[in-house]
Every structure is written in structure tokens, then in C-alpha cells.
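Researcher: Let's run the pair from yesterday's discussion. Sequence first, then C-alpha cells, for each.
Model: Starting with the first of the pair.
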Amino acid sequence: MYRRSAAAAVVLAAALTLTACSSGGDKADSGADAKAKPPAASSAPDPADTPATPQAPAEAKPSGPVLPDAKLTPKTGSFTAQEKKYLSGRVPEKMDPAAVLQTGQEACQRIERTAKRDKDAATGAVITGEIAGAKDAVDLLCPEQKPITAAAAKGFAEGPRTSPAAGSYRALTQAAGCTWEAKGKDGGILASGPETPPKAGDKIVATIPAGAAEFNSSGCYAWIPA
């Protein structure tokens, strides 16, 4: 795959950040910047601590003028068909397409590195937005990582969640500080946990009963179906 210098990627990040701000991207940025903790028992590095080029909000595309597909060519070499699909509608005018491509490649690399050590950590990083732009990058640049984004699509990050789907969910952490509760429409607690502090290696599972109006959790990083 075609690579460019880190300097070009930094220029890209600045341009996309300005574009995102003009289109109300603050909410997405706040999610991507959240410092959720990775699985406590994981030996995988926290993706948030991995040096990487600053990126635009997850899956964001420029709101201003973009290069037409016919002009998506690198200064040297060529792009593959999948790389061109990834770049389509994503490159601001007067921007080097190779720099845009690099942000997607870096997302793929971060997912791959983390998943080799701990798939839960990689899944959680995608759910929480710590690895920005993951879905588009994986779909078009590293489809071998689709199991990670598929698992993330079924999960959700810690914090308040309204109208949660009933069922059992597993926290992507083993931290003793993980707590959760499900409330009904009247605000009454329908279920909460864990009942006892988890021991090393224990999985933290929350069961959301039917009819729950809100599910809230803290210190649990992210959840996926159990």
C-alpha cells in the first residue's frame, strides 16, 4: 500500500479537524478523546497510549469540496482499487490523497496490533472511538479485521444508555471498580451488579431485564453480548 510521510498526515489531520468543527463534529471528537480504560487483565497496550496521527471523528468525511475520483492519484506510484474506494469523497481539495489514505492505514495497523494481543481490547477501542474511522478503514483496507468491527457493532460503551435491549452483556474489562444498574421507567432499580467483587480472571456479566428504561455502568470500559 502506498505510504506517505508523517508530516503529510499531520497536515491532513489539521484540515479534517477544521472541516469537522464547521459541521458540528464536537460530539464525535469528545467520544474519540474519551480516556476509557482498557481491559484490566489485558496485556495489550491501550490504543489511546499508542502514538498515532491525530484523526478526524470516526467515519467523518469532509463537508467542504472534495477531490473528484478522477483526480485521486498519488504523486508517485498508484492506488489499488480498494484504496480508491476508501478515498472516494474523503479527500479535501488541495490535499494529498496519500495523506488521507495513511490515516486509514494507521487505523488498520492499530486494530491489528491490539487484536494480536487481546481481541477484547481491540473491540473496546473501536466501540469507544479510541481508534477513529475504524469501520470504513476495515471494510476497504483491511477486511481481515472485520470480526473486530462486527463484534464492536453489537456493543456499546460504558455510561448511561436509554431504552437498552434486554439480554446478557459482558464487560470488556475485569476491573474491580466496574459497576452497573438497570432502571425501570419509574427510576426504580430493576437489577444491579456485580453482586460480589470480581476475582482475577472473572468475567463481569450484566443482565438487562425486559422493560428496562435505562442501563448505566461505570468503570466497565465497554460491553458486548455475552
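Model: Moving on to the second of the pair.
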Amino acid sequence: MTTRTQSVDTPAGEARITWHRASEPRLVLAVSHGAGGGIEARDLQALAAALPARGITVALVEQPWRVAGKKVAAAPKVLDEGWRGLWPALVVPGLPVVAGGRSAGARVACRTAAALGAAGVLALAFPLHPPGRPEKSRAEELTGSGRPTLVVQGDRDPFGRPEEFPPPSAGDPYELVEVAHADHGFAVPKKADTTQEAALRTITEAVGEWLGRLPV
């Protein structure tokens, strides 16, 4: 695996891509961070470490607001603008690109995937609703992605537990993988009957298996 960082100018400002390249890649998984952190998130780092050995180049994307050092995420419209602006850099290797992200980044991927021609969508810790506000559902963003979609969700996530998600339909298919004892950041309490390492392994194995089934 080789790693390289690339700056990309977008209409929303300068974005940054950290490439974790597979030696013989067959696709690119581009994943962005959420509103409360950056690409140092444990799930993003786990994917970047594990997937290149499976022939998947992982591109960790930092949105312009994060690159600029701001503490508060930009509005959804601006996040989408930044993602669309950096997309041409993601397709340069000439490989199919799966759009992904965690939390707010997952929402961006869902909203833009069809228009950008993404091969699929990976939604990590999708924020189905604000904590304690299940009536404020964002399910339509997820089910309306227009692309094969995998949701990876902790069973203690206050932004939406797995059982709160709508059942997939024939018109809006998606798959959901549950991560036992994990919260919105996929953190597992020490008292749980599993480990943090096992939780991250659940994520990387599920994502790797799903990407292997994508018709690309």
C-alpha cells in the first residue's frame, strides 16, 4: 500500500484527499468524515488499513471546512458542492468509485451519488434522525440514493439504531450491517462482551465483502 495526500480546489474551498492505494486496485472507495471530526475517525482509519490488501484503493476525503480549520461544519448545500467539486480527482485513476462517508458525510454521499455516477454508496453511522427526535427522519436521503447502498450502524447509535431503519423495498434496496455494542463513533464500552478491535473487524469485513459483490 502506498499513501499520498492531494489538495483539490473546489467551489467550496480547498479539499484534501489522502490516498491509501492498493497495488492492483479494482475500485476506489472514497469516504468522508462527519460534522464532529475528521478522517482520524476509527472506522475510516480501519477501512484505510484493511481494504487495500483486498484490491480496494481507499481515498479519505477532508471537506473544505475541515481543511480550513473551522470548528463547525458547512451547510448541507456547501458540503455537497465541495464533494461534487473534488469528484473529478477521485475518478482520475479510471476505476469505478464508491461514494461513502460517516454521519454527515454519509448524507452527502447519498444525496449526490446518482448524479455523479457512483458505483455504490457506503453509509457509516448514517444519522437517521437527531438524537431523541425520531420524527425528524432522514430516511428518504438514504433510500433515495439511487445506487446499491450499504449501511453500517452501531446498535447503540442515538442518531438511529438499526431497528429504526425502514425495511428495504424493491424500489429502494439497501443492506444494513449491525455493529454490536457500538455507538455513533463505533466506540464499544469496556464492559461489553466484545472488543473495540472486534467491532472494527466487523466493519472492515462487512464492507470488504459488500464491495466484492458490487457489479463493477
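Researcher: Give me one sentence on the second I can quote.
Model: The mean pLDDT is 95.
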